[in-house]
Design brief:
The complex is a heterodimer. Chain A is built from nine helices and ten strands. By secondary structure, chain A is α/β, with parallel strands linked by helices. In chain A, strands 6-7-8-3-9-10 form a six-stranded mixed β-sheet, sandwiched between helices. In chain A, strands 2-1-4-5 form a four-stranded antiparallel β-sheet, with helices on one face. In chain A, helix 4 crosses helix 5. The radius of gyration of chain A is 19 Å and the shape is globular. The two termini of chain A are about 35 Å apart. By secondary structure, chain B is an all-alpha fold. Chain B has one domain. Chain B has ten helices and two strands. In chain B, a hairpin with a 6-residue loop joins strand 1 and strand 2. Classes of the chains: A alpha/beta, B mainly alpha. The interface between A and B is large, with 56 and 47 residues.
Chain lengths: ~250, ~290
């Protein structure tokens, strides 16, 4: 069985949009901004890898490349046997990219209505979409709040809804970007327990989690990859990463 | 069909047309649910719509009271003349701006990343917004014509339905062609595109939206021929007000056919390049 993730020499450089002054000088782009440089990683089936590093280290960019949303500038990444540059519908059914970004939901709509909308994007007919939304809301503990507007949800509830959205497909691989960001310690602990037991372990899924929190890495990860300024600086089991980094 | 790992349902893989319909319906349900959450805004919009129709009617009563040689070839009813102009302006605005607007709004609101992380093809995500907007514009047009007919007795006794039926898709295709080019340019330079604003102003001034092109001086009349709206109005008014058969409307049909035939393939190709570039840049998911 091949590794679910096999990436070699991944680099990513962004070209921010030009300002009006740039356009007047005939430049369509600002100076390039390197985000990742020569990053290689392999993730074994069922393994949970945490990407750690300071803000701007490249964690989110790497996750987006693995999700097939961004195309790497250099290098090659194969995820579940597919080159991420060729990510298609079948690929996106098997890879869940859990975006906790609150703006990605419609605030006036309820959790149920939000999930039903994303169910349609997954190709479900209205009936099955509603049934699946109800089952997932129940599973993430939001059944009672299902018909409340998203705007009234707490931070933890919003993260749980994002998880439910990620499970609408049939994911073998789950990519999570800072799933407990902004939660209080109790809420974060609860969500980590749910992630570990319900989302990852129960279904035997492979997962890559971007996080800044060492407690999260220890609770969820089999291995930590520490990124700094777009490069891999250290790689070790969670309880040895600080030692590897010389901290 | 692949069974879902969670055992909650089966992950479907519908044919593209069915997938499009499902997303369009979900999009419409979402928009209606969102709109119903802002009832006061909805009432205000309906009121302002009614007020604009009333204002037009009173204006047309004043214009219509005088014998107007410029309107003679359009049947002499100014309200019928101007309602067609405003309805087509609405269609042009949607054709030219809705795709670019959808992209910009989704980028600013952060919706695209979550949507593009699902299996849905990108073209479906991008096209449901404009299709929904066109459907709303058809509804607005129907409301305009109904109010004009019921309250102010506007009639189209000579209307050629065949001419209107053939001209409608041609007009929409020409506008969508400009919209594709405009949205692609906006994605490439990542700036709001001024084309739509310029086109709207130029069309209102030159194309004969509120007054016939014949009142313009010759130089401006020649400029007006460069705008698709001029030909769209000539075609639709010809069909609705004069009942002209298609065979007598060769010039606007040919002009709109050229606009659509050139701009849709060029716009689609440019849009495909912009989409590929946006995926490399990551600019589809943020601004």
């Amino acid at each position: 069985m091949s590794d679910p993730i096999d990436a070699t020499g991944i680099g990513k450089t962004f070209h921010p949009a030009a300002t009006v002054a740039d356009l007047l000088r005939g430049r369509l782009r600002q100076a390039p901004v390197p985000a990742l440089s020569d990053v290689s990683l392999r993730v074994a089936p069922g393994e949970v890898v945490c990407l750690m590093g300071p803000n701007g280290a490249g964690k989110s960019t790497l996750l987006r490349i693995l999700a097939g949303i961004l195309v790497p500038t250099t290098g090659r990444a194969r995820v579940l046997g597919v080159d991420v540059s060729d990510a298609d519908a079948a690929f996106r059914r098997r890879v869940a990219f859990v975006v906790g970004e609150e703006r990605s939901f419609h605030w006036p709509l309820s959790g149920r209505q939000n999930l039903a909308f994303f169910g349609a994007l997954h190709g479900y007919a209205p009936g099955p979409s509603r049934a699946l939304a109800a089952a997932l809301l129940d599973r993430v503990g939001l059944a009672e709040a299902a018909d409340r507007p998203f705007s009234t949800y707490s931070r933890g509830m919003r993260q749980r809804l994002a998880l439910a959205r990620g499970l609408l497909g049939a994911p073998d691989l789950v990519l999570l970007d800072e799933p407990t960001l902004g939660l209080d310690p109790h809420g974060a602990r609860e969500l980590r327990r749910f992630l570990r037991e319900e989302v990852i372990r129960r279904a035997g899924r492979t997962a890559v989690i971007g996080t800044n929190d060492p407690a999260e890495a220890r609770a969820l990860g089999d291995r930590v990859i520490f990124l700094d300024r777009g490069r891999v600086r250290a790689e070790a089991p969670p309880d040895r990463i600080e030692q590897e980094l010389g901290l | 069909m692949t069974p879902q790992r969670s055992g909650l349902a089966e992950a479907p893989s519908p044919p593209a047309w069915l997938w499009f319909c499902r997303v369009l319906m979900a999009f419409a349900r979402r928009e209606i649910a969102t709109m119903s959450g802002y009832r006061v805004a909805l009432v205000v919009r309906l009121l302002s719509f009614g007020i604009s129709v009333l204002a037009l009617a009173f204006f047309s009563r004043m214009v219509g009271a005088a014998v107007n040689p410029y309107l003679a070839s359009f049947g002499g009813d100014y309200l019928a003349f101007v309602v067609i102009g405003l309805v087509l302006m609405d269609f042009q605005q949607i054709g030219v701006t809705s795709l670019g607007q959808r992209i910009r709004n989704a980028q600013l609101m952060g919706l695209f990343e979550a949507e593009l992380a699902t299996p849905v093809p990108t073209w479906i995500v991008l096209s449901v917004g404009p299709v929904y907007e066109f459907a709303l514009a058809v509804g607005r047009a129907a409301l305009y014509f109904t109010l004009a007919a019921l309250l102010f007795g506007v009639r189209f006794p000579h209307a050629s339905l065949l001419t209107v039926a053939v001209s409608a898709p041609l007009v929409v295709a020409a506008f969508v062609g400009i919209g594709l080019v405009s949205a692609a340019t906006q994605m490439l330079v990542r700036r709001n595109n001024p084309v739509a604003v310029f086109l709207a102003s130029a069309s209102f001034l030159l194309s004969g939206v509120a007054y016939p092109v014949s009142v313009l001086p010759p130089a401006l009349r020649a400029l007006a021929r460069l705008l698709p709206m001029t030909h769209a109005l000539e075609l639709v008014r010809g069909g609705l007000l004069r009942g002209a058969p298609l065979s007598t409307l060769g010039r606007p049909v040919l002009a709109l056919g050229l606009f659509a035939g050139l701009l849709i393939p060029a716009g689609a190709a440019l849009f495909a390049v912009a989409l590929r570039r946006a995926r490399v840049d990551g600019s589809l998911t943020h601004y």
